[in-house]
Amino acid sequence: MIKLMIYLHRKAGLSREQFQYYWQNNHGPFFMKNAAVMWYKKYVQSHTIDSPLNDGMQQSRGMPAAFDGGVQQCQGFVGSLATRQAQEKTAPGWSRFRVGLVALAV
Question: Would strands 2-10 and 97-105 be described as parallel, antiparallel, or unpaired?
Fold first, then answer.
């Protein structure tokens, strides 16, 4: 099982609320509908919340701007993302995201 962790920033012109609404109510269901094409077994979204604690940690540690969210995806075969069918299925949804960080784990 391969675990893919992706941390996202919203595209310019979208508020965090707009981004998270779209991600949760459009992209998430679309992804799950097509998960079998990409051999995904698990999909977990984590949405960043607005909190003074985020700002405090960011400033005190010299961290960059917070991500707007993160997603954990687990798939059975690492090469499945490279298939033409997987790329065609997922391409339309990515227009609202800027990927900030991607990590693979086994």
Answer: antiparallel
